[in-house]
Design a protein that fits this description.
three-stranded antiparallel sheet; flat; motor protein
């Protein structure tokens, strides 16, 4: 599966178990930080022989890891490259060499990954809904099977140790279960021998076992694979071998100094001590805890809550005698052994059920079964040993009612005599079978079950199969007899039916044969009549053909005679027609010659007349041109008159407009004078009032004003009369101009009529000229024809 699809599946799985998107990002960020930590490298420091510093080439990886952990690069580098040693009254910061810094970096990566893994397990358990206060639970334990590779290391050692523990529990559980069932059923039984692997577990887990020696070697600073192998060889293969390994489970390979062999329950496995110590070390550094506690990311702070670190002895890596080191050593093997102890306690407190997975072939292909490989897996898984333990006792067991229901047929009389007591019936059946068959022995009856030795259930099943087979044979006999009788009766009934239908068929065949004979006679009658009719018609046709042939011969002979007469008449008519045609042609040619001479003379006379008429046509064309010139002159005069008329109308319009404006001005002045007259009347009235008041001065002034107003009114009336006279004069001139324009229009209309008449006359002249030209052309053609054909006709006539 591609990495992208695998990542999507992981995201969906985290969503299903209830991890929100923010926490998913934090988880992926922490995993990325662990990966970036693997790219961080260290080099020797410039100022110190034992110190180390960050490799400049891994600066980017360190920055990425610090950002993902929520801290800065100096804090991360300081936590990895230095250690704090606590002495009496003071603390010393000790730098570490590049190799020690690399180990510290790996320890930090393991620390991060371990806490993240524990957090994921806790979240998944919480999402499943496990009740911590529940007294009952269902658990599933799935581990790797027994492993034996070409090169086996610390991982295979731990896995095989777990399998040894589980195999011991499996053997004890099977034996205990067998023992409990025997005791519960109250049957007699003896102790069953089985292979116990406690000696292998003692070899690995005891006080001076392999795990203790590996932990002891991890404490030494300069321990390596060779020193570990030497310590194991000295402990288990030296002079104290009988005391340390009495079961001979440990051995040393002949050609290797870094390997040792353990004989497990499933076989011998050779382990390599290379990297054994590094994989077993699990340091807890307080500086790492302090740095992660101070992270800016809340998720990282939750994974690493504040805790008080416990100091470790000073003789560990990075420490010094007389002080306390910052390392806290923890063995992976010891922790794994403690986990196994807790697991065994849980398994002992529960009721386990085992599922053994067997690989049918090494190629992982379907429909392939490798017997040797499967047998080896069964032996390594302890299945064969469990089967042997089970077969050593009473492997076959049945409840009483099941046993009676299955094997009652073997001794039905004894079973019926028990009268419903299944235990008594089971004992009676077994006693009867034991009396008849010597193989049935060693069975026991418990409280609710029948216990049989190995192979006895197969004997009972064989007897049951024989009885069932005999019963089946008997049943088949009666069933077959019944089926045979039924079949015979069916055949008998079918025989009667067949006879009935056969006789009916024969009778129908006889009737059909009689009907066919009668039909044949009728057919022969009609066939003979048809043959006679056809013979008569054939003779009739032959006579008719002979008559037709003779009559045709006579008719053809008469036709030939008529054709000869007709041909003679046609020849005579053709000869007479030829003589008449020759005479007619001679007369016709003479007539044509005479006509040509007469027509030629008439054509010459007509040609002369046409020449005279052509001269007359030239005179007509001159008259036409003069008429056209006159028409053009009249059109020019007409246009000139129209232009004069338009100018007169425009001038009259301007004069009328100016007269109207003057009239309006005069009227305005008249209105003004009228208003003044009104004012004068008012003054006159006031003068009268003043006169009545005997005011002589005011009366004189009013009189003067009245006289002046009268004079002004008289002037205005004179102006109005003058304006009326001028308007009348303009109207008269306008009428005269309109009369002249109408006269000019009439003249123009007459000129148009004359021009149109002249145009029609010209068209008639042109048509007449064309007609004269055509007649002239025809006369010339006739004259030429007459001149060309007159002489030959005359010559022919004279010759004739």
């Amino acid at each position: 599966m591609p990495n992208v699809d695998e990542f999507d599946h992981t995201r969906r799985a985290m969503e299903i178990v209830g991890i929100p998107l923010e926490e998913q990002q934090c988880v992926f960020g922490l995993v990325a930080a662990v990966m970036h930590m693997g790219s961080v490298a260290f080099v020797d420091s410039d100022g110190s022989e034992d110190g180390s510093k960050l490799d400049p080439a891994s600066q980017a990886a360190a920055e990425a890891a610090a950002q993902l952990l929520g801290t800065d690069v100096p804090s991360l580098v300081r936590a990895v490259t230095t250690r704090k040693v606590v002495t009496v009254g003071e603390e010393i910061i000790k730098p570490m060499a590049p190799e020690a810094s690399t180990s510290s970096r790996d320890a930090l990566s393991k620390f991060l990954y371990q806490r993240l893994f524990d957090w994921l397990v806790t979240r998944i358990n919480a999402s499943i809904g496990q009740d911590p206060n529940s007294e009952c639970f269902i658990g599933v334990l799935d581990i790797y099977g027994f492993e034996s590779f070409e090169t086996n290391s610390f991982e295979q050692f731990c896995i095989n140790l777990a399998n040894e523990k589980l195999q011991q529990h499996f053997n004890g559980h099977v034996f205990k279960k067998e023992q409990e069932e025997y005791e519960r059923e109250e049957i007699d039984w003896s102790y069953i021998e089985y292979v116990d692997n406690q000696d292998v577990l003692d070899l690995i887990e005891r006080r001076m076992g392999i795990v203790s020696i590996v932990d002891e070697q991890c404490v030494f600073p300069k321990a390596n694979a060779n020193t570990l192998a030497t310590a194991l060889y000295n402990t288990f293969t030296g002079k104290d071998k009988k005391t340390n390994d009495p079961t001979d489970r440990f051995s040393k390979p002949k050609r290797s100094e870094q390997q040792f062999t353990i004989r497990h329950y499933a076989g011998q496995v050779t382990y390599s001590t290379d990297n054994f110590l590094d994989k077993n070390k699990d340091y807890l550094v307080p500086e790492h805890q302090v740095m992660l506690e101070a992270s800016e990311l809340e998720f990282v702070r939750e994974l690493f809550p504040a805790e008080k670190p416990e100091p470790a002895p000073s003789n560990g890596p990075g420490g010094r005698r007389g002080g306390k080191s910052g390392f806290k050593f923890s063995s992976v093997a010891s922790n794994f052994k403690k986990s196994l102890v807790a697991l065994m306690e849980t398994l002992h407190a529960t009721e386990p059920h085992y599922v053994r997975c067997i690989k049918p072939n090494m190629a992982q292909k379907p429909a392939q079964f490798e017997a040797a490989n499967v047998l080896h897996q069964l032996r390594c898984g302890g299945v064969l040993e469990a089967v042997r333990i089970s077969c050593a006792g009473y492997p076959s067991r049945r409840y009483f009612h099941e046993f009676v229901n299955r094997f009652k047929m073997l001794a039905s009389d004894q079973a019926d005599a028990a009268k419903g007591d299944d235990r008594k019936a089971s004992g009676a059946i077994l006693a009867e079978l034991e009396a008849r068959i010597t193989d049935i022995e060693g069975y026991q009856l418990g409280k609710s079950k029948v216990f049989l030795r190995a192979g006895q259930m197969a004997v009972l099943d064989k007897l049951r199969s024989e009885v069932m087979r005999k019963a089946a044979t008997c049943i088949q006999k009666y069933v077959r007899r019944y089926l045979a009788v039924k079949h015979y009766r069916q055949l008998q009934a079918a025989n009667l039916v067949m006879q009935k239908y056969t006789r009916g068929m024969l009778a129908r065949r006889l009737a059909a044969r009689l009907r066919a004979t009668k039909a044949a006679v009728v057919c022969q009658k009609y066939a003979r009549r048809g043959a006679a009719v056809r013979n008569l018609q054939r003779h009739k046709k032959a006579a008719t053909a002979v008559q037709a042939s003779w009559r045709g011969h006579v008719a053809r002979r008469e036709a030939r005679s008529k054709r000869c007469d007709l041909a003679a008449l046609r020849i005579q008519s053709r000869w007479r027609a030829a003589i008449l045609r020759a005479s007619y042609n001679r007369k016709r040619q003479a007539t044509i010659a005479l006509q040509c001479a007469v027509r030629a003379r008439k054509a010459r006379e007509e040609f002369k007349k046409r020449k005279a008429s052509a001269r007359e046509r030239g005179a007509l064309e001159g008259a036409k041109k003069s008429l056209e010139a006159r028409v053009e002159q009249m059109q020019f005069q007409l246009e000139l008159q129209k232009k004069l008329k338009e100018e007169a109308v425009a001038e009259r319009t301007r004069e009328v407009e100016s007269a109207n404006r003057a009239m309006e001005e005069r009227l305005a002045r008249a209105e003004e004078e009228k208003s003044r007259a009104v004012e004068a009347a008012r003054l006159e009235a006031e003068a009268k009032a003043l006169a009545e008041a005997n005011d002589a001065a005011a009366l004189a002034a009013a009189e003067q004003e009245r006289e002046a107003a009268k004079d002004r009114i008289a002037e205005l009336q004179a102006d109005r009369d003058d304006m009326a006279a001028r308007v009348a004069s303009l109207e008269r001139r306008l009428r005269e101009a309109e009369e002249r324009a109408s006269t000019a229009e009439t003249a123009r209309h007459d000129a148009d009529e004359r021009v149109r008449a002249i145009g029609e006359s010209l068209k008639d002249l042109e048509a007449h000229n064309r007609q004269l030209a055509e007649e002239n052309y025809m006369l010339k053609a006739r004259a030429q024809l007459s001149a060309g054909g007159g002489t030959p006709n005359g010559a022919e006539t004279g010759g004739a």
